[in-house]
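Escalated from tier 1: zinc ion holo job.
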Amino acid sequence: MDKVFFGIDIGGTATKLGAFSAEGKLLDKWEIPTDTGEHGSRIMPNIAAEIVRYADTTENVIAAGVGVPGPVRRDGYVRRCVNLGWGGFNPARDLSAQLEGVPTFAGNDANMAAMGEYWQGGGQDARSLVFITLGTGVGGGIVLDGRVVYGSAGLGGEIGHVVVNPDEPMPCNCGQYGCLDQTASATGVVRHARRVLARRTDEPSALRALDAITARDVFDAAKAGDALAYEAVDTCMGFLGKSMAMLTNIIDPDMYIIGGGVSKAGEFLIDLVRRHYEQLATLSEQRAKIALATLGNDAGIYGAAKLAMDAVRR
Ligand SMILES: [Zn+2]
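Tier 2 regenerated the structure:
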């Protein structure tokens, strides 16, 4: 068989693997369960076994990249990854050892997704971009001139914990009050919708008939003209626009790519964010483009493979 690169995205429940040609074409992708038992000690052996099963021999593997759900230093070291049970572990070095020395590199999963979108997704026209994923929480990654920003402790691109709402009464899981994570995530959108409903009890809303509200319900109602739902999503996306305006004043990227489950609200969401962003990003004459992510859940394997490709060719 032809030699391949591997892009791997380790999640708390499933691990995605992608085999890529030397030219960067995704050849095959599949998932295995993530076995987090025994402090996650079986995760890397299971991945190594899958790689060998696919490639027959490690000689067919040029290099591998791994995305990890937590901070990863540039040298691959993970000080702590609660989701996987790891502490003081270097998954890149470990996988390389199990693959008879195949060069292996690791990065934070959202940073890998940013790289994936930059390489073969919504950010292909950009030189530098910020990727923001709106899911249960808010994650992010920054690619500047083709390189992922790791930062000193692996916290580069951790946009979710920028404080944007000083009036927030509830603490974030990081200990601060008013993080972007608390407003632009799916949980944040639902919380803000409930607050609007509780504050404007005399006004009708389609959301009042629902037992359990989801972020999708709030966006759908807002699109259908529900005033209270619209106020909630406008507030939440306003905070996202604010955080992007701050980033523009710091790194001035060409582009923002918005992904994650909440981004399924589509161009409606992008239009809301863009309006707030453009009101606040007053220094830049040429405003950054804002677009939806296009690789979905595959962004991580693309980015991890690209990390490995760039590293061995540098
Ligand atoms: Zn926070």
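Residues 161, 172, 174, 176, 179, 181 surround zinc ion (CB under 6 Å).
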